[in-house]
Amino acid sequence: MHSNGVSAISQEAANLNLNDHENRPVDPFAAYDPEPPPAPKLKSKGVIAMDITEQFTLAAQQLDIGQLVKDPFFTLFESVGALEIMDRKMDSGYLEPGETMEDDFDFRQDLLPEEIIGIIDQLLCHEMAWHMGHPLAQTIFTSLYIDRILSPCPLNVSQTFFDRSESCADEPMTLQILRAYCLGLIKTCCYVNDRVKSEHTYEEEDFVTHTFHRSLLEGIEHEKIAEFLDETIALLAGTDDMEPVIRKALECRLQFRLQFLRTVEGADSTTSGDAKKLWSDLSGFIPDLKSSLPFGKPFPSSFSVKIQRKLASTVPPRPIVQVSQEAAFEHLERLCLDASVAVEVLKYSDSQSLMTFVFLFQARKPQPSVYVRTLLQHYVFADMTVLGAVSIRRVLDDDLATIVLPSDQLLDQLNDEIEVPHDPRHNMASRMEIFRSRAAGSYLDIMRTICQNRCRIRRTFRHTIVDWDNLQMDAEELDVELREFTKEEPIIDPEISNEPIYSFPLSSWAYFYKLRIMEWLVQLGFELETYQPDELAGMYWYLQYLAKTRSRHLERIRGFVVRSLRASLQKPETAAAEHPGFMSAMSFINLSSMESAATYGFSDALSCLFTVLGRLSLIKPPPRPYSDDIMRYEVRMKPFYSVGLPELLPFDEFTRHVTQPEFSTLELLQFAGESAMGAKKGFEVLSKLTDKEAFCQGSHDAWLSNIKACLKACIFTSITISTVKKAVEAAGTKGQVKLKVEIPLAGKGYHDWWVVPKVTPIP
C-alpha cells in the first residue's frame, strides 16, 4: 500500500466519533438491499474472474431432494466460519438499531409485594423447566436478579445485594425477600446439579448440568443461607406494611424455598429416616402456593435473553423457555411424590424385591424426573454398597441362593476362613470370589441401566446381552472346576440324554438373566413403538419363544433344587436351618414359572391374532422401496446375532412359525383364544399373591397394578379374538370380512407391552 493511502486511512480513523448518531443512517446496509453488491474486480495475471451464478443454479437443480455435495477440504471450522453474521437468528452479538448490548435495568427500584410474588412464581416455573431438561441459560439464568447475585461470584451472603451502592440497613424489605428466595433457589440448584453429575446420566438426552462457568454459591455454606431465609421470614412476619393475604403468600414462598433447600441437602443420606418426611413436608406447601397464584403480578422486564451473550457467545441466541404454572406445579408435585417413593428402596428385604422395586419405579407413567432417578442410583450404589448398608457380596449371594444355590456350600461364608490350599473349601471360596468379581458388575449394571430413560434402557440392553453371554461362558468353566471340589453327582437319565447331566449353577444363573434381558428388550420395543403394525405378529412370536425358553430353563433349575432339598432332608442336624432357603428358592421358581407361562401364552395369542389380521388384509404392510422382509428381520434380530443360546432361527423357519400356513384362519383364532384364556388364568393367580410370595416387598402396590393392567389387556384380547372369529364365520369362505382395525398408540392401551388391536365391525 502507498504511503499516502496509509495517511488517508489514519486521518479517517482519527475523525471517527462514537457519538455521531445524528449523521449516521438508520440502516447502514440499506443501500445494498435492492441488489447484491457487484462482483469484486480482481486484477491479476494469474486469476481470471467470471460469473458462475447461472451455471451453479443449473447444477443445483440437477440434485435430488436430500442429496448433498461436500468438498472434503471444506472443514467443519470453515463451515461454522461461513455462517452469516448480522443475522439475529445466528449472531448472538447482533443489535437492532438503538438496542444496547446489556439491559438497562434499575436494581434500586422499589418493587410491589405483588411483583415479588410474580417474580418468585416465574422463577419456580424456570426451575421446573430446568428439571424437565432445559439448560440454565434458557431458564433460571435469564433472571436479571439471579445474574446480579452470581456476577461476580459471591463468597458470603453480604456480597449478594442487588443494589451495591447502598448498605445492608437500607435494603427494602421486598428486595430482601427476593434476595433470600434467590439465594435459596441457587443453592437448591447446586445440590441438584451435583447429584445429577455424580451419577450415570446422559446430558444430551435427560438433563443439562452445564453452568456456563457460573458458581452456584458453592463458596457459601448451606447454614448461612438457611439462617438468612429464617431471618427474612421472621422479619416478614413482624411487619404490618402489607396486606395479610400478600404477607402470607410471601411467607409461604420463603418457607417453601427453605424446606426445598433442606430437603435436597438431606435427601442424599442413606442412613437417616427423615428423607421421606422431608419430601412429604415439601409437598404440603404446594396447595398454598397454588391458591395464592392470583396475588402475583408479572414483572417480565426482570428476565432477559441478552444474558446469554455473557454465558456462551458462540451459541446462537435461544428464546426463554416458558413453562406454564399448571405444568410447573404438576411437575413439582410429581417430583415430591416420586422422591418420597424412591426412599422406600432403602428397606432391603431380598435381592429380587430390590430388582422389582427399581424396575417398577422406573416404569411409572410419566417416568420420574432425572433428579429422582439419580437419587435412586445414589441409594442403590452409594459408597460401593447397596442401599448404604448392604454389601454387594451379600446381594449377589442372596440372588444366587434365591435362584440356583439355596443353602449351598458354595455360598458358605465360613469357607473364606479356610487357608489350607489343598482344602476343597478354600478352593471353592477362591473360585467363587473370582465369579463374584466378574459377575458383580454385570448384575449391578442391570439396575444402573434401568435407572435411565426408556429409550436408553433398550439401547444399553443391546450391549448388556453380549456381556451376559460372555459371563455365561466364563461361568461354565468355573462350574466345571467347582465340580471337582463339591463332588457333585450327575443325573443319569437316558430319556433326556446319554451324557451325565450336571447342574451348572453359575452358568444357569447367568443364562436366566440373559433371557430376562432379551425379553425386556423385545417388550420395550412395543412400549417405544419400535415395530411397525405388520411386524407385531413376528415380534410377539419371538417373545413367546424367549419366554418359553426361560420356562424350560426354570424347570431344569427346579429339578436340581428339588434334588438338593431331598439330600438336605437326609441330614437332620442341618435340615432345619437349610429349609427356609430351599422354600424361598422354590417360591421364586414357582413365581417366575407362572409369570413366564402367562407371558408366552399372552404373546402367542397376540401373534396368532396379528397373523390372522394380516391374512385378512386388515393390517397391510406399508410400501418399503429400500428394504425387504429379510433385511428387516436382520435389523430386528441384530441384538441377538452374537448370542450363542438361545439360537437365532433362520428367516425361513421364523416366517413359517409366524405365518403357520398349515393352519386355517379359524384354527388360528381358536388357538389364540385358548392361549389368551390360559394367560388370563395365570395373571389372576399372580394377582392374588402377597408381597412376600411375589418377591416385591416395598413395591407390592405397583407390582399388583402392573399385573392387573396385564390382566385387563388379556381380557380385551379375548374379546377382540371373539369379535374377529364371529366376523370370519359370518363372511364364509369367499366373503369379505367387514372389520376395521386400529392399533393403539403407546400409553393409550391397558399396558404398553401388550399392543391389543381395536377391532370394530363395519355395518
Description:
The protein has 763 residues and is mainly alpha-helical. The protein contains 24 helices and two strands. The chain has a two-stranded antiparallel sheet with strand order 1-2. The longest helix has 44 residues, at 572-615. The termini are far apart. The model has no long low-confidence stretch (mean pLDDT 89).
Features:
763 residues, mainly alpha, two-stranded antiparallel ribbon
Summarize the structure.
By secondary structure, this protein is mainly alpha-helical. It has helices at residues 3-14, 53-61, 76-81, 113-131, 144-150, 173-198, 222-237, 244-266, 275-283, 286-291, 308-311, 325-342, 351-362, 370-381, 392-403, 424-450, 454-486, 505-527, 536-569, 572-615, 629-636, 651-659, 665-687, 700-731; strands spanning 739-742, 758-761.
Beta percentage is under 5%
What is the mean pLDDT? 89
The geometry reads as globular
Cα-to-Cα separation, first versus last residue = 90 Å
Largest sheet: number of strands, sense, barrel closure? 2 strands, antiparallel
Number of strands: 2
Low-confidence segments: none
> Largest sheet, order of strands side by side?
1-2
What share of residues is helical? 55-70%
**Class based on secondary structure composition and strand pairing:** mainly alpha
Helix and strand succession? HHHHHHHHHHHHHHHHHHHHHHHHEE
